[in-house]
User: Fold this.
Amino acid sequence: MKDIIKKINEIEQTVIDWRRSFHQYPEVGWTEIRTASLVAKELKTLGFKLMIGREVIEDNKRMGLPSQEVLDAAYDRALHQGADPEFADKLKDGFTGVVGILECGDGPTIGMRFDMDALPVSEEHVSSHKPFDQGFISKNARLMHACGHDGHTAIGLGIASVLSSMQSRFMGTIKLIFQPAEEGVRGAKSMVASGVLDDIDILLGLHLGIKEEGSGSVYAGVSGFYATSKFDICFKGVSSHAGTHPENGRNALLAGAATALQLHSIPRHSSGISRINVGRLEAGTGRNIIADQAFMMIETRGSTSEVNDFMVKEMHRIVESIAALYQVTYEIEAVGHAEGGTSDEELVNIVEKVATQLEGLSVKPCLDDFGGSEDFTEMMTHVQSNGGKACYILMGSDIAAPHHNGAFDFEERDMMNAVKLLSLIAETFGD
Amino acid sequence: MKDIIKKINEIEQTVIDWRRSFHQYPEVGWTEIRTASLVAKELKTLGFKLMIGREVIEDNKRMGLPSQEVLDAAYDRALHQGADPEFADKLKDGFTGVVGILECGDGPTIGMRFDMDALPVSEEHVSSHKPFDQGFISKNARLMHACGHDGHTAIGLGIASVLSSMQSRFMGTIKLIFQPAEEGVRGAKSMVASGVLDDIDILLGLHLGIKEEGSGSVYAGVSGFYATSKFDICFKGVSSHAGTHPENGRNALLAGAATALQLHSIPRHSSGISRINVGRLEAGTGRNIIADQAFMMIETRGSTSEVNDFMVKEMHRIVESIAALYQVTYEIEAVGHAEGGTSDEELVNIVEKVATQLEGLSVKPCLDDFGGSEDFTEMMTHVQSNGGKACYILMGSDIAAPHHNGAFDFEERDMMNAVKLLSLIAETFGD
Amino acid sequence: MKDIIKKINEIEQTVIDWRRSFHQYPEVGWTEIRTASLVAKELKTLGFKLMIGREVIEDNKRMGLPSQEVLDAAYDRALHQGADPEFADKLKDGFTGVVGILECGDGPTIGMRFDMDALPVSEEHVSSHKPFDQGFISKNARLMHACGHDGHTAIGLGIASVLSSMQSRFMGTIKLIFQPAEEGVRGAKSMVASGVLDDIDILLGLHLGIKEEGSGSVYAGVSGFYATSKFDICFKGVSSHAGTHPENGRNALLAGAATALQLHSIPRHSSGISRINVGRLEAGTGRNIIADQAFMMIETRGSTSEVNDFMVKEMHRIVESIAALYQVTYEIEAVGHAEGGTSDEELVNIVEKVATQLEGLSVKPCLDDFGGSEDFTEMMTHVQSNGGKACYILMGSDIAAPHHNGAFDFEERDMMNAVKLLSLIAETFGD
Amino acid sequence: MKDIIKKINEIEQTVIDWRRSFHQYPEVGWTEIRTASLVAKELKTLGFKLMIGREVIEDNKRMGLPSQEVLDAAYDRALHQGADPEFADKLKDGFTGVVGILECGDGPTIGMRFDMDALPVSEEHVSSHKPFDQGFISKNARLMHACGHDGHTAIGLGIASVLSSMQSRFMGTIKLIFQPAEEGVRGAKSMVASGVLDDIDILLGLHLGIKEEGSGSVYAGVSGFYATSKFDICFKGVSSHAGTHPENGRNALLAGAATALQLHSIPRHSSGISRINVGRLEAGTGRNIIADQAFMMIETRGSTSEVNDFMVKEMHRIVESIAALYQVTYEIEAVGHAEGGTSDEELVNIVEKVATQLEGLSVKPCLDDFGGSEDFTEMMTHVQSNGGKACYILMGSDIAAPHHNGAFDFEERDMMNAVKLLSLIAETFGD
Assistant:
C-alpha cells in the first residue's frame, strides 16, 4: 500500500495539470472530442488496450444528441484546440467514449467509470475564482466544467498511470470507462448497449464535492438514486387568423398549455416519491395567429424505477389524449434516462474498509436517500443484473460555489484522495 | 373637376416613383424615419405648414414601442438610406408622425390620414413578383411593405401636390396626416392625444386592395370595424430545482399555461361577436428548473367597443387571479388598441356621389360588416365625438397575393383613383 | 269572415274552460296522458279522423324520455284525474301525441301544431295570482303550466271546433298536431319521424305571450331560431382509496371537471353566434375515495344549424379525449334537439295580411333575430325540405310574470285572437 | 399479575355482552347518546368520578357536526333504544363525550382513550356474517360498527371493571376517555380543548384488527401517522340564462371544476409524502342555467404535519384565487383534522415488555410507517407538548372483512387481550 501511495503522491502535479487542461477546453455532451482524444492518447501511451468511438457507443441508444451542425463545429474547434487527429476521427459525430483495458492476470474484471462532459454555464471572471486568478479559466464561451467532470477525467488518468506503472501489484482485468454526456443522463445507456460492460464483475463510480461535506470526507456508497427520464415534446397544429376564422385553427399553444397543467397533476404514487417538471414551453408566432406549433422540455423522476415508469406512462397518455383533444399531432423524443440504483452492501463494506485505512479521510457509511439522479445507474443496474457488484462513491471537497454555478471550483488535492482510494480498492481484488 | 383630373394624370409617374422609393426602404412602426422625413421635406417644398414629431405624437400614448436599441439602429439605417437629417432629428426615438396643413380660406377643416409603416415580412425574390422583377424590391432584410402603406403614403403626397398647385380651387383647411405604426393598431391613439385632430370637421381614411374586389371598385364607406386591444403579459415567479425542492418554486410557466386556457374560455357576450387569442407563449429555461418567467402575446376583439371592453376586463381579472393562484407577479402592457367604428352616412353619401362621377369606378355603398380592425377608428371616433364626420373608404385593386404575404403587390394605377377621389371630395367642400 | 268570427266569439267560454282544465292538471313531457286523451276525445267527437300514440310518435326518436317508473306513475295519476281510458291506453309509456285530420275537399294540406306539456315549476299560491284566486291552480305538486301550453292546447281545440262546425268554408286537408315534450326540445323529432308531417304543404305554429309585447300585438313570422342540442354525459372510472393508493384510481370527477372547462373554451365560430353550457355536474361519493362516476347536463346552441353542429362535434371530441386522458369510459345521451329555422316570407305575408284585417290587432312583420330555441323548427325544416311552407307566429299577451316563473299567467282573451287568426288563415287557402 | 388476569378472564362474557349491545345500536359521530349514556352509567356504578358532555367537549372545537335536525332525531332514537335519560340529557346536541376518573393514590395520571362512533355502512344480512347469524346485527338501518369501535368501548368498560374491583393494586390517577366522532377525525380536538387531558402524564390508545396481522399479534407502538385535514368548500356565484345572457353569469360550476383540477396539481413537497383528494363535487341546477352554486368535499394528508400544513395553505390560496378568477364567493369549512404523530419510545418499550409477558401474544416493536390517520394524534401531541408520553397500540385480530366493509367482524376474544394489556401497563406505574 505504501508504495502505491508514494507513487500517487509523485504524480499529483500531473493530475492537476490534466485537470486544468480539461478545464480550459470544456466540451458538452457528445462533443468531448478534444478531451476524449487526449484520454485515448494517454491510455495508449500507458500501455492500455483501447476501445474507442463506435466500439463503445451504440449508435441508436445515444440520447439528446445535438444537431449535426453543432457536432461538426465541435469537431473543428477540438482540432483547433489540440485534439489528437488520429483519435478525433473515431470520436467525431457524437461517439465520444473511450475505454482503456489493462489485463493483470487472473481475477475479476473491475470497471471504473469517469464522466467527461462540461455544462452550458458561463464561468465567472473574478479574481476570487481560482481558475480565473490562476489562468486556467474556460476558453470556450458560455461553456464550463461546473460539475467537476474535469476532475473525474483527471482522476481516471491518474489511476491509469498508477496501474500501468505498478501492474504486477494488481490482478484481474481493469477497465477504465471514460463516458460522454452524463449531464442530462444521456450517455451511459449507449455505452451499456455497446456491450463493453458485459463482463464487468466489480463496477465503481464516483463524484467529487458534496455540498454539505468538505474535503476529506467520503461516503463509501450511495443508494436511493432517483430514476429519471427527460423528454422533448412537440405539438403541431394548424394556424388560422384568430379574428376571421378562429374555428379553423388547431391550437398547438393550448395543447401545450393543457399538457403542462395535466402533467403537473399526475396523481401521487403510493410506493414512492415522484417528480414532474415542464421546464420550458414555447409556442406560437404572431399575436393574431392561432399557434400551429408548441415545444416543451420535461422531466420525470421517481424514488424507484417503478414510480418513474408510472410517471412516464402517464405522460405518454396525457400527451396523446391532449393531442386528440386539440386535434393536433405530436412527437415525443426521449432525450435522457437513468434508472434508480442501489450500491451493493458487500462492495460498500470494502470501500469503507479501504477508505478507513487512508490517512486524513473521514469515512461515512452508505448514503441511503441520495435523492438525485446519475446515469451511472444505467451501468450499475446492468452489472448487477449480470450478477456483478457496483458502488458509487462520494468524495467530499471544499467547493467554492454550488455545482452548476459559474463560480464552482473544487479543492484539487481531493482528486488525489480519489486516485488513492480507487487504486487501493483495485489492489484489494488482487490479494 | 376636369382640370384637377388632368393635373392628377400628369403626376402619375411621380406618385409611382414615390411608392417605389418607399417600397424599397420599408420601416416598421415607430421607425419610419426615412419615410416620414421625405414626406416632411416634400410637404414643406409644396408650401404646407408642417407639424412633426413630438408636435403630433403624444409621448406616453404611444403603444408597442420597440426598444431604444432598435430605435437607434433604425435611425442610423434611415440616415444611411437617404433620410433628410433635418427632419430625421425630430422624428427619431419613435416620434415618426407628420402633419401637413394647407389653409385655403374659409370652410371646414378636412383631415386625410395616410399610414406609413411596413411589416416584418420577407419579400419574395421571384420573377413573378413585380417589385423583384422591376428592381424595387425591399432592401431591408425581413421587412416589407406587404400591406400597401407605401401606396397610401404616395397617395398622400400626390394629393398634397394637387392641392398645392390648385390651391384656389379648395376652401377651408386641409390637414394631411401621415401616421406611424398602424400595424398592431399602435399609432393613432398618440396622434389623437396630441390634439392635432381636435379641429377636424371632416375626416377621411382609405385602404388599397380589397381581396374580393378588383381594380376600379370602391366602397364609399366602411362600418362594423371590430374594436381590438393588444397586450403583452409577463409573469415572474421563483425558480427552484424541480427534483429537490418542488415546493419552493413559484411556477410562472404553469401560470402562463393556465392563463392561456382561461382566456380562451371567457364566456360569449350576448350583445355581439367576441374574439380572443394567445398567439405566443414562452416560458422557462432549463428542463429541471421550475420556470420563474413567462411571456405571452394576446389580443382581444369585439364587434362593438362594449364587447371588446368586456373581453379586456375579463382578461385583467383572469391574469390577476391566476397570478394569485400561482403566487407570481405580473405585468400587463397595452401594446395596441383600436375602437369599433362607423362611417357617417352623410359623408358616405358624398363619397359615393363623387366616386360615381369618376370614370371607370364601380361604386358600392357602405360595407356594414367589415369585421376587421384599423386604428383609424381612434381618429374617427374622436372626430365624431367632437361633432365632426368621418368616413373610411376601400379602394379595390387587383392584388397579387393576400395582404401580409411576401408576394403581395397592388396595381399602381389604382393609387391615382384614390388621389382623384380624395381631391375631388375635398373640392366638394369648397363649393 | 264575419260568420267565422261570430262562431268563434260564441265558443270563448268553452276555450277558457278547456284551458283551465289543462291548467289544473299539468303534465310534463311524455306524460301528457290526461291532456292528450281529452284532446283525442274532443277531436273524435268533432268528427276528426284520429291518429294517436305510436301512429304519430316514432319510438326510438323520442328524446329525454323519463324512466318507466315515472311513466307508470303518470299513467295512474292521469286515470285518477279524468283521462279517457280508451285513449290513455294508446298514449301510455310515452307516446303522448295526437293528430286530428279533417278533409275539406281539394286543396293543400295545412298543418297546425300545438304543444301540450307543462313544467317542473311550483305554482304560486297568492291571491294576486289569478289561477289561485279563481280556483284553477295546479293540482299536481311542483308541476305547472308556466309557459302557456295549456292555452296552446285550448286554442287547438277551439280551432277544431270552428273547422268542424263550418267545414264547408274550408278547402284541402287540415291536420291539427298536438305535440308532447316541447320543453327541452324533445318531442318534435319523433312526430316528424313518424311521417305524419310528410304530406303537409302549409305548416303553422304559434306561441302566446311575448314579454315585451302586450295583448293585441302579433308578429306575423319568426326567423333566427337558434339550433340547439341537449346532452347528458356520464363518465365511469375506478375508485381507489385516495390516501393509500392514489395511483390506482381512474378519476371520473377530474374527467368531468376538465370536460366542463374544455367545453367552455370551444373556439368562437366565424359564421355565427354560439353558446355552450354545463348546467349541472355531479361526481364522486366519499371524501377519501377517488371518484368513479361523474354526471353532466349540457347544452349547445348556434345561430345556425351549422354553428350548432360545430359545437356538437367539438363536444364529442372533447368528451372522448378527456375520457382517454383520465382512462375513464363515457356515455353521451342526446336528450333534446332543435334545428335553426326561418319562416317563409310568402307565408308570413299571408299571415300579416289576414292579421291586419282582424280588429284590435297590432301587426308587426317577421321577427328576424329571435335568438331562442323551439322544436317546432324540426317540423318547419322538414316541411320546407319537402317543398312546403312554414311560419311561426308570436301572439302578444299581457303576462303576469316571465315564462317559466311560478307567477306566470296570460290574458285568456288572447287565445281567441289566435283561434281567429289561424282559422282565417286556413280559410284563405280555401278561396 | 395472575390475580388481575384471573379477574379479567371472569368478566369475558360481560365484555362480549357489552360489545354486542353497542353493535346492535350503532350511532355515528356526535350522536353516540345511547352508547355514551350506558358508558357513563356503568362508570358511575363502578365508582368512577364522572365528567360528561360539555365538561369534556369544547363547543366550538367540534368538527363536522351534523345538523340540529339529525341531532334531535338521534336523541329520540337513543331514548327509544335504552339510553339512560339522566345522562342522555347531558350528552344531547352533540356533546357525546364521557371521562371516568379513578384516583388510586400517588402516581402519574394515566389516560386511556376509547372511541365509540359507528359508520354509515349497511351491515350484511348473510348467515356467514356472525352478528347476523348470532342475532346481534345492527338495528339501525344503514349504520354499522364496521371499524371495531364497539369493541373499543367494551374494552374500556372491561378495564374500568378491573380497575374498580382491584383498585389497591394501582397507583396514580386513571382517566378513561370515551371519545365521540373519531371517524372523519372530528372529535378529539374538542376533548383536548376542554382541558380534560391537560394533566395526563401517560396516554394510551389502541385499535383492534390489523388487516395483515391476525389474532394474538401486537404492535407495541405506532408512528408515522399521516396528518390530515378535511374540508367542505362551497362556491356561490350568480345564475344567468346560458343562451340569452352568458356574460351575466358568475359560474360557480366552473369555479368548482377549476379548483378540483388545481388542487390535484399542488406540487410535491420535498420533505415528505402528500395526498389530496376532491371526493365529491356537486354544482348547478338546470341545463340552460349558468350554475350559481358548487359544493366540494376534500381532504389533504401529509406524512408530517408540516407537509399537511403546506397542502392546506395551498388549498386556501387556490380556492381564494379561483373564486376571484370566476368572481364568485366561497366558504371553506374545516370538518376534520388530525396531526401526524409518533409514539414515545420509552412508553413503547414498556408496552412491549408487558405484552411479552402475556401468554399467547406475538409482540412486534413500533410500526414506523403507519401511513394512516387517527385523531388520537390530537391527544397524543397535546400530552407530549405538556411533557407527557403517549403510545398507540395495534391489537391484531382475525377479521372477517376489511374495516368499513359491511361484512367486517373481529374475533371477540381479542378484546380480552387488550383489557389485559392495558390493565397490566397501568399496574406497571403502580410499582
Summary: Residues 305-326 of chain B form the longest helix (22 residues). The longest strand of chain B covers residues 274-284.
